[in-house]
TrEMBL record, chains A, B:
<dbReference type="Pfam" id="PF06089">
    <property type="entry name" value="Asparaginase_II"/>
</dbReference>
<protein>
    <submittedName>
        <fullName>L-asparaginase II</fullName>
    </submittedName>
</protein>
<dbReference type="InterPro" id="IPR010349">
    <property type="entry name" value="Asparaginase_II"/>
</dbReference>
Amino acid sequence: MTGQTGAGQAGQVIFTRGGVPESLHRVHVAVVDAGRRQVAACGDADLVTFPRSSSKPVQALPLALAAPELPGDELAIACASHAGTPEHLAVVARLLARSGSTVEDLRCGTHPPFDPAAAADLIRRGEQPTPLHHNCSGKHAGMLLACVLNGWPREGYTEQPHPLQLRIRELHADLGGVAMDDVHVGTDGCSVPALALPLHGMARVFARLAAPAESLAGPLAPALERVFGAMTAHPLLIAGPGRLDTTLMSLVPGLAAKMGAEAFYGMALRETPRGPLGVAFKVQDGGERARPHVALAMLEALGVPVTAELRALAPNVQYNWAGREVGTAEVELPLRWA
Amino acid sequence: MTGQTGAGQAGQVIFTRGGVPESLHRVHVAVVDAGRRQVAACGDADLVTFPRSSSKPVQALPLALAAPELPGDELAIACASHAGTPEHLAVVARLLARSGSTVEDLRCGTHPPFDPAAAADLIRRGEQPTPLHHNCSGKHAGMLLACVLNGWPREGYTEQPHPLQLRIRELHADLGGVAMDDVHVGTDGCSVPALALPLHGMARVFARLAAPAESLAGPLAPALERVFGAMTAHPLLIAGPGRLDTTLMSLVPGLAAKMGAEAFYGMALRETPRGPLGVAFKVQDGGERARPHVALAMLEALGVPVTAELRALAPNVQYNWAGREVGTAEVELPLRWA
């Protein structure tokens, strides 16, 4: 590890009502530069935690390595926590067909589409969601194709001992600069391994994504570049209409951003006054409503212009069901710079 | 204040994944007995916070005082955060008509029904939710009737200077054993004043509800008794199918329980080895998923038998979308007994 600054005062997002604090979220942040050096932190940058879907750019690397000619939208959907709109499903179906797989091969499980309009459409048509609607179906379709292209069995592709999942764990360790033993293995919402590693490790992963060529030789650098290119070219595929990743990437040049469940967040920032940076943060209680507030505060702290359009993602003033102003959201991020 | 034990170690609900902690909620608890004495606490019992809808049994008191013959189901719906099912709406409509009011008089705003089946039904019929579907519509209908019966104007019934809202603030101070100046005023999600007071004050309010006759003279005691009776006789009206208040009250004899937004909780327990008790707790970050875990741990700590049916409300084992076991929920409540 280089440039560790240890644990310190955590950040906070405080929701107030009538001037009185009502609820409070604690936040841990790590920032790493293109030279893999930790340049800033808040709270405990060594916190071992689960990036969940923020791992998807890494989980898509075996696919990006094995299929260098894959269309960008299909690589993007493999990195996505998509909203289950018809546009998302069409790209998933195309990627799934490439490995000769069908919806029956997907092991992600089923939940209603995240997109409210898409969910309401299903209800209106009297239809049940399928595994295609699961936000991870693109990742699973990409994993199936990675297996076929690498000559690995499709069977058991979600299980820990499968060569694909072992490769993904190795990639987290290598790109994150942590030992394999420090990458713990749980099970994710979609049944693939969920990996846990120190927060600074995930910041390092996103720093690699921000600057692949500066720190990597061999085929990994162009594969990371393809992942970065696919994500930034297709922000709507990565999340969906009105969702944080999509809006941030649409508005901030040179940003690949990926949310994970339980309020994890990763950002690969290519254009900051300090050069390319990787950012990872975790809201300690998993409170996802605090995420846009922390993301914008971090952009601001790192010298990325925060426009009014961006600011609208994390409004300071909070409103109730009747549209009345009821409180504020305050962000405190006491960053320690290395 | 009697029996204050000050701030101490907070409780925690920890969600783990693959044996590694993933997210953590901090919890503050206060317990008060029928003699208004604080008998136990965890974290900061002096925390000034918003009970939100856990205030509803107090907000319904002016109605219970003015309409002693009101049917129990209508008093219950005035104490409810209901789920917007047809059963809920029928009782709200009946209560609303009693004051000659209509849906246009309700100032609560509009949101889709909390009950997923009721929400899906609206979508299928192509209808929009109305203020009747708002979880607070019964409270608002009750407030309108309280105004009419007291000779107060219906106009402005949600505003701070209205005599109804002043009376409700006084009741919080009196029943909670705190000064009026210590009852802060914000605005709630449904536009009535949201009051903030120390956690031990709300525990005292719920202790009053558990044992009205033991500590109050005058008409307040029978009015509190009617509120307790209405809540416990109609658990399905207080919340809705499968929801925490409803299930707890259906399974625990002598319990009136009321949730508030941002993970506040109040319980009036009539039958414990220590006699009647009032409990109030707040999950610091507003994380509502931690609430059933804390509620059950408190029942257990206070000597109320927790059956397997109750335990199912807050399962220790957590599952993913595919039904696989992925982690646990651990509760630590280091109660300090007075």
